[in-house]
Specification:
Elements (H helix, E strand, L loop, with lengths): L16 H8 L3 H8 L7 H13 L15 E6 L5 H17 L2 E6 L5 H9 L5 E5 L5 H7 L6 E4 L10 E5 L1 H15 L4 E5 L5 H16 L9 E3 L4 H12 L7 E4 L2 H13 L9 E6 L12 E4 L2 H16 L8 E4 L2 E3 L15
Parallel strand pairs: 1-2, 1-3, 3-4, 4-5, 5-11, 6-7, 6-8, 8-9, 9-10
Antiparallel strand pairs: 10-12
Length: 348
C-alpha cells in the first residue's frame, strides 16, 4: 500500500501544493501524485515538479508511518569491508532505538532500474547511502520528494542541499603524522586510498600540513594513493621497505593498508615498531587484534551510521535540520605499532 500524505496545515512560511503546482505549471493533483510516487506521471513532468519541490525545499507535513513503511534502506557500494560493517552496526543500533527496520543493500550501476522502481514506490521511510562517490545518476534514482536521503562521507555531492555526515579527516591525518613526528620520525610515508574519495584527499592534506609545520620537506616518493586494501598495502610496503632510504614510519589512510604494511615488514624481517612504525585510520575491529596492536585514528564509524539514520528520521518527520552536513570528531588511539626510530641518525 502506498502511503498517503496527511492533510496540510496552513503555514505562511511554507509553500503550499498550490504554489508548487503554479511554479511547475501543473495541477495540485499532479504534484500530489509526484509526492506519492504514483507511476501515472510522465518522466518530464515528474522531473519538472521535483525540481520545483527542491527549489522551494518542500517537505510534506505529517507523513503517516504505517507498518509497511517502517524500514530504512542502508545502501553500500561495498558490503565486505570492516568500514561497512561498523557503519551498518551503528545504523542497526539507531534503528532498534527508533523502532524501525534497517535493511542493508548493495548498489551497483546495473541495478539503477530496479532501484528507481523501489524508490518511487516509496517502500521505505528513506535511504542512507554509503558510497565513495555519489554520481548524478544515483542521486537521480534516489531523488523522490518526501523520501529523505542521507549520504555518508561521499565526494562530489551532485546537489548542495543533500544531507550528509562525515568525520574530521584532515584533523585525523594531521594528528597521526604529528604523533610520528613527536616520536622523532622524519622519513614518514603516507599510503592513502584513491584521490576520488574526499576523505583520502583530506587525510593527505593533513599529513602534508603536519610535515610542513614541523619544517620537514615533503618527499613525493613517499606518497602513494592507491585503489585496493590489504594486498595493496603489502605491495606498497614491500616497495618502500626495500629501499636503502626506506621510511622509518608509515601513516596509512585506513587500517587494512596499515596491516598490509605490517605484513610487508614481517616478510622483510623488519620489526614493528622497532624498525618501522605504522599508523592506520578507522580503528576497525582488526586494529586491536593485529600483531602488534595498531596505533590508529579512530573514526566514529558506528556513530556515523547511527547519526545518519537519526537525521533521516528527523527529516522524514518534517523537522528543521539546520546544517546539511555534520562532521564527527576523530582522535588518535595509541597502541604498540609506533615507537621512536631505533637509530634516527642512520637515516637521511
Amino acid at each position: 500500500m502506498i502511503n498517503s500524505l496527511a492533510a496540510e496545515t496552513p503555514d505562511p512560511a511554507r509553500p503550499t501544493l498550490a504554489v508548487i503546482a503554479s511554479h511547475a505549471g501543473v495541477s495540485t493533483a499532479t504534484v500530489s501524485k509526484v509526492l506519492n510516487g504514483r507511476p501515472d506521471v510522465s518522466a518530464d513532468t515528474r522531473a519538472r515538479v521535483s525540481a520545483v519541490l527542491r527549489e522551494h525545499d518542500y517537505r510534506p507535513v505529517g507523513l503517516r508511518a504505517s507498518s509497511e513503511r517502517r524500514a530504512v534502506d542502508v545502501v553500500f557500494d561495498d558490503l565486505s569491508s570492516p568500514y561497512s560493517a561498523a557503519v551498518l552496526a551503528g545504523a542497526l543500533d539507531a534503528g532498534v532505538e527508533s523502532g524501525v527496520t534497517v535493511v542493508a543493500r548493495r548498489y551497483s550501476d546495473e541495478t539503477d532500474a530496479g532501484w528507481a522502481a523501489r524508490v518511487r514506490a516509496r517502500e521505505c521511510i528513506g535511504y542512507v547511502v554509503v558510497s565513495a562517490v555519489l554520481t548524478p545518476t544515483q542521486a537521480d534514482v534516489f531523488d523522490v520528494p518526501g523520501v529523505p536521503l542521507v549520504v555518508i562521507d561521499a565526494v562530489g555531492l551532485p546537489r548542495r542541499n543533500l544531507m550528509s555526515v562525515g568525520a574530521t579527516n584532515f584533523t585525523g591525518g594531521f594528528t597521526a603524522t604529528e604523533h610520528l613526528i613527536q616520536l622523532g620520525h622524519r622519513r614518514i610515508a603516507h599510503l592513502g586510498g584513491t584521490m576520488a574519495m574526499a576523505c583520502h584527499v583530506a587525510r593527505l592534506h593533513g599529513y602534508r600540513a603536519a610535515l610542513e609545520r614541523a619544517g620537514i620537506p615533503v618527499d613525493s616518493s613517499l606518497i602513494a594513493n592507491l585503489e585496493g586494501d590489504y594486498e595493496a598495502g603489502v605491495e606498497q610496503g614491500r616497495a618502500w621497505l626495500g629501499r636503502p632510504d626506506s621510511p622509518t614510519a608509515v601513516f596509512a589512510g585506513f587500517d587494512l593498508f596499515a596491516l598490509g604494511v605490517i605484513e610487508a615488514a614481517r616478510a622483510r624481517s623488519l620489526r614493528v615498531p622497532g624498525d618501522v612504525s605504522v599508523v592506520g585510520f578507522d580503528d576497525s575491529y582488526a586494529a586491536q587484534w593485529s600483531s602488534p596492536p595498531l596505533t590508529t585514528v579512530r573514526q566514529p564509524l558506528r556513530e556515523l551510521g547511527a547519526l545518519a539514520l537519526r537525521r533521516l528520521l528527523q527529516r522524514a518527520a518534517g523537522e528543521e535540520m539546520g546544517s546539511h552536513h555534520i562532521e564527527l570528531a576523530t582522535h588518535l588511539v595509541v597502541r604498540t605499532s609506533t615507537a621512536p626510530p631505533s637509530d634516527p641518525g642512520t637515516r637521511p
